[in-house]
Amino acid sequence: MTPPAPSPTTTATPLPAGYERRWWVLATMVVCLLMVISGNTILTVALPTLQRELDATQGELQWAIDSYILVFAGLLFSWGVLGDRYGRRKVLLAGLTIFAIGSVFAAFSDSALQLIGWRALMGVGGAAVQPATLAVITNVFPAGERGRAIGLWAGASGLAVAAGPLAGGLVLEHYWWGAVFLLGVPVAALGIVGILLVVPESRDPSPGRLDVPGVLLSIVALVGVVYGIIRGGSDGWSTPQTWAPLGGGVLLLAFFVWWQGRTSHPALDVTLFRNPAFSAAAGALTLNFFALQGATFYLVYYLQGVRGYSPLESGASLVPVALGIALMAPRSSVLAERFGAKAVCASGFGLIALSFAGIQLLDADAPLWLVLTVLAFQGIGMGSVLAPATESIMSVVPREKAGAGAAVNNAVRQVGGALGVAILGTVLARAYASRLGDDVDALPPAAREQASESIIGTLAAVERARAAGGRSRR
User: Fold this and answer.
1) How much of the chain is helix, strand and coil, in % rounded to 5?
2) In sequence order, which residues have a C-beta less than 8 Å from that of residue 147 and are 6 or more positions away?
3) How far is the C-alpha of 157 from the C-alpha of 467, rounded, in Å?
4) How far apart, in whole angstroms, are the C-alpha atoms of residue 303 and residue 371?
5) What total number of domains does the chain contain?
6) Is residue 13 included in any domain, yes or no?
7) End-to-end CA distance of the chain
8) Burial bucket for residue 145 (CB in 10 Å: 0-12, 13-18, 19+)
9) 461 is a domain residue
10) pLDDT (tens place) for every residue of the chain, 474 residues total
11) Which of these, 301, 313, 431, 437, has the minimum number of CB atoms within 10 Å of its CB?
12) Which of 152, 40, 162 is nearest to 386 (CA)?
């Protein structure tokens, strides 16, 4: 006679290896992961639409992305501690609820500043969900299956990269821009149902206290650094508006690291970085997501602004990146077992570098096959890095501290992504501003102001000027 399946609410502390519902748990965690990642990437194809509908500047568009990422990264540590202390299942349910509420309010924003604020609230929820999914997987799978499970989890992030822009483009073809945020609400509801049905509770039997000073330091420091980089793109690097927040952010980051080494209950266990495998994996993930988020931000402007694609067409064009990640991440775990994580990650970065070199060849007349090939190389390279680096981090952390380990894993990903958007966005903005020169002086004042504020604004002003020129010739 088979004993009844254990209730998903009765298990405390780390679970015994081989929880019998583990594959259903993995499926539920993938749903939650899809919501968080696609909720972020879905915004990329909507940026030009948001610029027009909300009259957003280039800096405001960057902050619409970075407000989510920075709050996400800043709160990962505290949510990880809360999950280890009070239970990861509870944290998942809280995070999904907060994310859904933020999505609804973001959909009905009346201004760019409102959108930035509600995106920050979504980041609060996302910070609870994403590390908890990895911590739960680490606890329910035995060591022999954990690498495969993490590979599938990492591959699902590639699907989310595709699902976000595709779903966003499809929605923008038929509905108003706010509907892109409402897509996350039913996904959150599905995740909540799955958690209540199959996900067991797990927690650290000896949890630490919440490091409130450390959390506040990390948030303020990251905001200062990225804000300074963004202002450098718009105001120049020698102005106080740039170097004051940038320098202050760097100093606060240094103080944050010092504080984490002194406090008895750190938000980030800096001793983990003494392990070479852990440090190398964290650095690899930072660079990987720097490239992913930064390149995506750049490519959306290329696809829509240079090639004239619609949001749906630009979203579909990014599918090779997502498929490359989704297909390669599970396989890279197997390759890492055979050839070593270092060799697999190095080959992945080689492909990423090759794809960035290929991006330099893309102009308005570049054939579509070249665009898709470059993006496919980028996705395969990123998928090769993602799973081995994640497994390297989680293998160092004890299972009862999986929440803290997952928080570090996701923090370096989000910091890398934030800096990628900020730095590559700054490079794009500076190149755009330097090439404008005196070319916009002949435009009417309103069009000149619009062109000076954003790239999409310049394109719109040019189109109006062409139309006006055509009418005058007639």
Assistant:
1) 80, 0, 20
2) 333, 336, 337, 387, 391
3) 43
4) 10
5) 1
6) no
7) 88
8) middle
9) no
10) 444 444 444 444 444 445 678 889 999 998 998 888 887 777 777 777 888 888 877 778 878 877 887 788 778 777 887 887 788 899 999 999 999 999 999 989 888 889 999 999 999 999 899 888 888 888 888 877 877 888 888 888 777 776 777 778 788 888 888 888 888 899 999 999 999 998 888 877 776 677 788 878 887 887 788 778 767 756 667 888 888 998 998 999 889 889 988 888 776 777 778 888 888 888 898 888 888 878 887 787 788 777 888 777 877 888 888 888 888 888 888 888 888 888 899 999 999 999 988 888 888 788 888 888 989 999 999 889 988 888 888 777 776 667 677 777 777 887 787 778 777 777 776 676 666 555 555 556 655 555 555 555 555 544 554 455 444 445
11) 437
12) 152
- Closest to 33 in 3D by CA, of 142, 164, 165, 209: 164
Mark 168-202 as b/e (b = at least 16 C-beta within 10 Å): bbbbbeeeebbbbbbbbbebbebbbebbeebbbbb
238 DSSP assignment = T
Q: Tell me, what CATH number does 204's domain have?
A: 1.20.1250.20
Q: Is residue 464 part of a domain?
A: no
∠ CA 386-387-391, nearest 5°, is: 120
The two three-digit tokens of residue 474, written as one number: 């007639």
46: tokens are: 């909507």
Closest CA to 215 of 338, 124, 342: 124
Whether the Cβ atoms of residue 217 and residue 252 lie closer than 8 Å to each other: yes
pTM, 2 dp: 0.73
Are 112 and 454 spatial neighbours (Cβ–Cβ below 8 Å)? no
Boundaries of domain holding 44: 22-210+267-436+445-449
Query: Does a structural domain hold residue 292?
Result: yes
